[in-house]
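Troubleshooting: if your tokenizer reports a length mismatch, compare your output against this known-good record of 138 residues.
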Amino acid sequence: MDYRKILVFLKNEDKTESIQTISKVDNKYDVRFHSQPTQPDMHGEKSVVINHVQEEIDPTQTVIINGVVANNIKEMYDFGEWYRIVYDNKDDKKDTHKLYLKDDVEICANKVNTANARKIFNYIKGVASGKNWGILNY
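Known-good structure output:
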């Protein structure tokens, strides 16, 4: 299943990517996994939670997870109580993504998007890294 569109928990564990199909049959769910697509795996209603994406969030905003600013965010999806964050993994062709409880994540509007603010921010980053001791050019 596409982890960008749906979030499926089986027995409180994210199984979205390992599921090929899921359908409700009476009061149970018929789950078919990629590893055994012809083998039905039946689950009771209480052990299955399905959340559909509510919103795609602008990845240029500042995201703070458990008090730490997150870097290299490529995509971010709101699934109600959960956020799925896809990280830009330049070394690997496969996307790296993680699931976070909404209570652990803070999203702040990025104030560095104006041209002057971006120049100042880049200058300060350069000074902090020891690479830029010159004058700030406007």
